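Task card 7
Instruction: Convert sequence to structure tokens.
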Amino acid sequence: MCPLWLFPTYAVTDKVSYVGAAFPKIKYQSDFTPSLTVIADGRNITSSILSSMDSVISLDFKNEWPSILTKTLISTALKATVDVAIQKEAKEQFGVWGQLAAKAITAAGQAAINIADTRTWRSLPKEFHYMRLDTPADRSLTLAAGTQTQTVKLVPGSINVVYVISTNSIAPILVDQFALKP
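Output:
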């Protein structure tokens, strides 16, 4: 989600059809699984948070904000300048109707490309959790995340790593594993 700032240029000048600036805004994921519970050898063990990506991203966003703000304002000013030049040329070449057509086209074009870059925030997980336990005698783990449970039979090995991905509280969990010492 990105807020869009529109500047009412019509109150100042009729030379610019549209000026908008899209700034990224952090939107935290509220639908997530806060922990993973593993049932092994009759015991329930709950994962511990290793890293909150919300806090990592928030700090990075805070540190990058001056650069983001500067780039967005320069881009907006450049688009407004190009808009004025196009309209001036259209008026000289085609008169008032040409200028109106140029206004409509440049306004639509600017509105269409005025989007904040939010790719980084969407592609990262909310949290990383960690848990360590002895390999159960039956080499079986029951994983519970949100409303999902899944039983995993461990591959042969003396040290096993089980990797669990939970995208939200109701989606099926994705499980992968490997042995560090076969």
